[in-house]
Write a structure and sequence with these properties.
- The structure is a single chain.
- This protein is α+β, with helices and mostly antiparallel strands.
- The protein has two domains: 183 residues, 3-Layer(bba) Sandwich (FAD/NAD(P)-binding domain); 153 residues, D-Amino Acid Oxidase, subunit A, domain 2 (D-Amino Acid Oxidase, Chain A, domain 2, 2-Layer Sandwich), CATH 3.30.9.10.
- Helix content is 24%, strand content 26%.
- Helix 1 packs parallel to helix 5, helix 1 packs across helix 8 and helix 2 packs across helix 8.
Length: 406
């Protein structure tokens, strides 16, 4: 090993990177984590107080074993750290029977024999009166769903990684990486580091780091310009960045009690074909709701973080239609980023041109719940251990714009 003597450098310490750094360090590996900010922070995809965890995965049944392992790891991390990271509330998937959300959730539940119930609109309104679907909708109830606390999760992973011996350098922007024989060399704004392997978990900044020997451009637009002007690109993944707005509303007067977590589950609602919104019970900050996708194109360096009146009115109109007692005063809002692949499945694979580099990103708006298991699997693969999960759905090779490896 050359240089600083690290086995693995982790580039990006958000949801996936913090988990990987923890698992690597816990297993006795010499690991360096680098982040341009001080995580947890509000510039990327892993903030906003809460994230959903659910088991009857409508996106595809192949995710279910992964999320089941993620649950085990969340409970283990809670026990090890003494922090409360997961709150069970149960979960409702609401929509037309033939819609992607309901049919996909039922498929996963039935294929993996998960505990669940299918509720008619009448049963749904009776059991959970805050929801007001029309008679054509049904609900899939899963008791294991609940809430993760993203900022606390990231902070806990980082604290436990540091306790296990990881070197974590915050506020240190990475400029570029290069191969160094069989290893890698990473240059930051203040130093250069060497390691045997590199894990790239840069989220919305992933496009800047897919290829070596190029300093990171200042913006997504600069990334696109640099791609067009380069004579040869080793790897180009067609990512799209999407601005997402999170809202917290106060229930209308005298209607707060039904939104408490003991009576109100997390939910996802396909309110029109292919259009989803989701929400959480009131944990003291209001009822959090957001659209799933449907956001405008984003640039993480220059993203519009103010929320327009039209965006507020659009969400309030949706609440008045479907959760009328939630449509009270707007208490607060935040903006985050989805980093999407064309098929909205993850990227989790070795770089096709450089055997020293592994890519674990992005999440396409549904990956945070998996960060515990993604971190564990990345740590195993980076240290030549075998894994038992089928990860073929997440291979980089499903994208076509890849030049032959050198």
């Amino acid at each position: 090993m050359s240089g600083n003597g690290y086995e693995v450098i982790v580039l990006g310490l958000g949801a996936m990177g913090s988990a990987a750094a923890y698992h690597l360090a816990k297993n006795g590996n010499r690991v360096l984590g680098l982040d341009r900010f001080q995580p947890p922070h509000s510039f990327g995809s892993s903030h906003g107080k809460t994230r959903i965890i659910r088991e009857a995965y409508f996106e595809h049944p192949s995710y279910v074993p992964l999320v089941q392992r993620a649950y085990e790891l969340w409970f283990a991390l809670e026990a090890e750290s003494g922090s409360k990271l997961l709150m069970p509330t149960g979960g409702l998937m609401i929509g037309l029977p033939e819609g992607a959300l309901v049919s996909g959730s039922k498929l996963s539940a039935e294929q993996h024999k998960l505990e669940h119930q299918v509720l008619s609109a009448t049963e749904l309104r009776r059991r959970f009166p805050v929801f007001q679907p029309d008679d054509s909708a049904i609900g899939v109830w899963e008791p294991r769903a609940g809430i993760l606390f993203p900022e606390k999760v990231i902070q806990t992973h980082l604290e436990m990684a540091a306790q296990a011996g990881a070197a974590l350098n915050f506020n240190e922007p990475v400029l570029k990486w290069e191969t160094d024989g069989d290893g890698v060399r990473v240059t930051t704004a203040t130093n250069t580091y060497s390691a045997e392997r590199l894990l790239i978990t840069a989220g919305a900044w992933l496009g800047s780091f897919l290829n070596p020997s190029t300093e990171r451009p200042a913006s997504v637009r600069s990334v696109e310009n640099s791609i067009r002007n380069r004579p040869k690109l080793e790897l180009e993944i067609p990512l799209s960045l999407e601005r997402q707005v999170l809202f917290w509303f106060e229930p209308i007067p005298a209607q707060a009690e039904p939104f408490q977590p003991r009576t109100c589950p997390i939910f996802i609602w396909e309110y029109e074909s292919g259009k989803f919104f989701y929400g959480f019970p009131d944990l003291g900050d209001g009822i959090k709701v957001a659209l799933h996708h449907q956001g405008e194109r984003a640039d993480p360096e220059h993203m519009q973080r103010e929320v327009g009146e039209n965006e507020i009115l659009e969400m309030k109109s949706l609440l008045q239609r479907l959760l009328p007692t939630a449509a009270g005063r707007l208490k607060s809002h935040e903006v985050c980023i989805y980093t999407n692949t064309p098929d909205e499945h993850f990227i989790f694979d070795w770089h096709p041109a450089y055997h020293q580099v592994f890519v674990a990103s992005p999440c396409s708006g549904h990956g945070f719940k998996f960060s515990s298991v993604i971190g564990e699997l990345a740590a195993k693969l980076l240290t030549n251990q075998r894994v038992s999960f089928d990860l073929s759905r997440f291979r980089i090779g499903r994208f076509q714009n890849i030049a032959p490896a050198r």
